[in-house]
# Entry
Amino acid sequence: MKIQTLGIIFIIIILPISFALSLYTKTQLETLSLQSLYDTKLQQATYDALQAFQLNTKNNTESTLADSKIKDIEASVTAFFNSLSSNFGLQGYSKDELKEYIPAIVYTMYDGYYIYSPYSNVATTTDNGVVVDQTETENIQYGLKPYIYYSCRYKRASDDFVITYSLDNYITIKGIIGGKYINDAGYIISNIEPFGDGMYKYNGIVMEAETALEEYIGNTKYQYIKIKGTKYYLDETKNRIFYILNGNIHEQISLKTNETLYNKYVKLIKNNTSALMYYKEAYEFTNRVLNTYNLKDLQVTHAYDMEGNQIKFATNANKHIFKQDDVKDKTPLEYSTSNFNQHRKAIIRYTIESNLSMAIANFNKYTKNVAYNYQMPNLKETDWDMLANNVSVVSFLQGLNLGGKIYNGYSVVLNTETEEVVREQDIYIVGSDGHYHRAEDKYLLEYKTLGEYGDKSSYSRGVLDLDFQTTSVNGSNDEKIYYYPKRELSCYDCVVNQTRVNYDFKYDNIYEYLNKLSVNTQTTLLKKAYYTALGRERWSSRLNNIKIEDFQIVNVGG
# Structure
């Protein structure tokens, strides 16, 4: 056969294949580009929803109440759909059309979560209180499902109880243990021991009352204490205690109105025992959990669902949850790598995954897009880890045609500016250089970068990151006065570019890092400042109906 003939045959065979491959490649590239574009639009809409939620909860003084929080979330959902419809405007999708592709939105909170998804409004007719007819209306409504806690049921011999977990080490126990009904709650923490009269040690560091916390309102510095998330300031010129609500200053108590209670506030402000109470109560609660309730032998295999079926977990299958006196289970409970925290994360994932997958699957009954089968996508392990430790918003977008395939995406955005949970990384340390630092900053290990604790007027503190942000108060003429409560500046080398973070040895969490430091005066000051701040902020944020009369009064330094 002539070469010319072979060339013609080659062209006839190869050219269509090359054209088809080129067209296929182009289609795939366009699909990937469109998918990336949709991912960006979904991420932006979810971020807008989170910003709306942050703004609403910050300005809503009753945001801790369930009804008020629901309103804040519903407003956030509205912001999500408005943003999404605006972002997809060029693609021809309206707000109502986009709802057909949003099977669920999840808002994870401190001890549970809300799922926003469609449902059918069911009308019933009764005859003398007995339901005789039950019909489903044609109108599909979108709304929040009831709040779901991060809870798990445990059955062990005659014990049958429920533990509700949270985004940190705070748990609630309710049910029958040892033949008695138990209703108890607190922080689970290892390595706390009594020390002297009313004092406690944590990891060898003595926890004491603090001298007064101070921050600015405008250009005036005040001493204060935080109780259940509200800061109460001491105005010594007017002999009063006040707080700020919606930007306005309100008097809580004064020397004239109630001298006894006013003096109580003053003593607590000048001798802040919040951190001490945190470790005291954690010691007592952990002791009850391990010894009084005998839960140190509780295993993951004792976990059951509400129907009485044993829950099968992929990890920690045969581990003790709380046990601390076994060579294999020596990791402190508060460590992220402990059996307790691994199980806590597994419970949070299990409760979200089981209910969310059901909500998305049920979306098939409500959507007009019957050609697509809605189901929960596989979230990355890193996403699950973030959800188990952070307040967040998770959105799902499915069923949109990308040309080469059907879009199935989700977006996770974390709320790092919430007071609902105090994370370990939310505590910064103020150095003698007038800057605030990450606790792992090498600078803090240098001589005299932290004030001596013996100097009660200037010793270094740990401070919650939110306290360094700008805020405002209404002036005399209703003008807003913006100011920084704390005047220290951010450390560029450890907070911004993180070039000075200590990686001289391996550690998984801040507790382990501090414990691995060489024991000297400087590291002792660092540990004391950090442990004190973490305890203070967690305890003063999570108080439940405590009265000012219930606080302990102790001398600073014991």
